[in-house]
């Protein structure tokens, strides 16, 4: 690819001097635009970008100092070289103070002009590269950290980077607590849509009516209490990304409406008669087997194929056991800073227990366990005594002896939820908050495991 030529503006009222400068710079390989007064130069600065301005100091009406000041005001990263036959210490000092790169006195040597021009343009390139690097680093810092060195997670990270720049829809499969929203946010932050909104919406937390209102918005007087027009979340995310968590829980009638939005790229507000164009990327997630739901008629096949352009399967924490130390120390660092506690290590026997446990609640459960242990820790390390009873009661040796009779993930999940509920005195709102899930999701789990009777 051919390197783009840099453009230089020459401002000189003496025709011979202007032609000489123009000739020197053209021969050096630059694009050159030359004018014979400061007024024309300022006009060009308003309409065209320059890499460098070379201006005479003494000119009628608008002099070189005014050209310098206007250049720095309109194009702050454009370098300026001052040239004059009336060089004084005061004028050169003032020019440098106002931002001039260099001050050349007439008569000048051709090689001197070439060298100073080359250095001024190099300074500009380095400044712009430094700004670009800072912007890149700033953008990277916004990208959520996906911790993990296991093959499954390395594959996930590779896929994220491969698909982020495109606009294709993505479907993320994974158990509760595996980090589905984190993956969705990473895709968004690495995409060209990163400067626009990322809207996350849990399809399992709302009734059908509320879901339609939240996603699509409503017109004024669409229903009792609708005193003003409301833009739905999809319109708020225009130009950005909408993350639909637990898409498998979306009611069939809402699936039809969502399909229309994806196909037509427009939203019809509740009570509205005219659709509104929208430009969003959809990322959906579920813990369910949507293929089976499609076969049973619980999920629309056409919507499934619209969303399932690219599939990302998140492994459970039990399937990426080797990542537990990395994740545990990551949460330890994160939480200790937030809680202002000087705890910087996890004792070896504590880590062995964490690695032996099967983590039915996945990463979210591990994060909560570390946060709890940190709150209880009295020294610089997390000890076995700081871990929850259902982990600390089992020594590593005992756990290994019982390895042939390890409870299933479902039994562990039931035990974990029961333990949290007991600690929260069966306050479901408090328990859901502790586990990092919504109250509706917790209620479904309580019902599935038959724990509602134990709360009576």
Overall description:
With 456 residues, the protein is α/β, with parallel strands linked by helices. It contains 20 helices and 16 strands. The strands form 5 sheets. The chain has a 5-stranded parallel sheet, sandwiched between helices. It has a 5-stranded parallel sheet with strand order 7-10-13-6-14. Helix 13 (324-339) packs across helix 15 (362-376) and helix 19 crosses helix 20 (439-448).
Structure summarized in a few sentences:
The protein has helices at 15-27, 38-47, 64-74, 89-97, 110-142, 151-163, 180-189, 208-216, 233-236, 252-264, 290-295, 301-307, 324-339, 348-356, 362-376, 389-392, 396-401, 409-423, 428-435, 439-448; strands spanning 7-11, 31-35, 52-56, 79-84, 102-105, 170-173, 198-202, 217-218, 230-231, 241-245, 266-267, 276-277, 281-286, 310-313, 345-346, 381-382.
């Amino acid at each position: 690819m051919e390197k783009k030529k840099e453009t230089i503006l020459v401002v000189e009222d003496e025709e011979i001097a202007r032609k000489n400068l123009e000739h020197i710079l053209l021969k050096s390989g630059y694009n050159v635009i030359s004018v014979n007064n400061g007024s024309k130069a300022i006009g060009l600065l308003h309409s065209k970008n320059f890499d460098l301005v070379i201006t005479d100091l003494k000119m009628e009406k608008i002099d070189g100092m005014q050209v310098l000041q206007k250049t720095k005001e309109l194009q702050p990263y454009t370098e300026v070289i001052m040239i004059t036959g009336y060089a004084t210490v005061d004028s050169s000092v003032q020019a440098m103070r106002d931002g001039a790169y260099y001050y050349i006195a007439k008569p000048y040597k051709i090689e001197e002009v070439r060298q100073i021009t080359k250095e001024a343009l190099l300074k500009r390139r380095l400044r712009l590269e430094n700004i670009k690097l800072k912007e890149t680093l700033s953008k990277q810092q916004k990208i959520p950290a996906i911790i993990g060195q296991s093959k499954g997670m390395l594959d996930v990270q590779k896929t994220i980077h491969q698909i982020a720049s495109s606009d294709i829809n993505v479907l993320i499969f994974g158990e509760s607590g595996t980090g589905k929203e984190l993956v969705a946010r990473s895709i968004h932050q690495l995409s060209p849509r990163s400067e626009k909104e990322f809207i996350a919406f849990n399809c399992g937390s709302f009734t059908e009516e509320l879901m339609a209102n939240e996603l699509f918005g409503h017109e004024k007087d669409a229903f009792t209490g609708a005193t003003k027009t409301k833009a739905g979340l999809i319109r708020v995310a225009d130009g950005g990304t909408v993350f639909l968590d637990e898409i498998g829980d979306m009611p069939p009638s809402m699936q039809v409406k969502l399909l229309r939005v994806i196909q037509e790229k427009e939203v019809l507000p509740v009570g509205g008669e005219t659709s509104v164009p929208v430009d969003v990327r959809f990322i959906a997630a579920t813990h369910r087997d949507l293929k089976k739901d499609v076969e049973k008629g619980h999920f629309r096949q056409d919507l499934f194929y619209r969303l399932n352009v690219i599939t990302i399967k998140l492994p459970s924490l039990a399937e990426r056991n080797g990542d537990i130390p990395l994740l545990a120390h990551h949460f330890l660092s994160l939480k200790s800073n937030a809680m202002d506690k000087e705890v910087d290590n996890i004792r070896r026997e504590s880590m062995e227990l964490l690695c032996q446990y099967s983590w039915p609640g996945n990463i979210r459960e591990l994060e909560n366990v570390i946060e709890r242990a940190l709150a209880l820790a009295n020294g610089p390390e997390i000890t076995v005594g700081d871990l929850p009873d259902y982990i600390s009661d089992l020594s590593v040796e005992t756990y290994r002896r019982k390895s042939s009779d390890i409870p299933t993930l479902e039994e562990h999940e039931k035990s974990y939820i029961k333990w949290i509920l007991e600690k929260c005195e069966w306050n479901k709102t408090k328990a859901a908050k502790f586990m990092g899930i919504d109250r509706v999701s917790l209620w479904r789990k309580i019902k599935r495991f038959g724990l509602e009777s134990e709360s009576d």
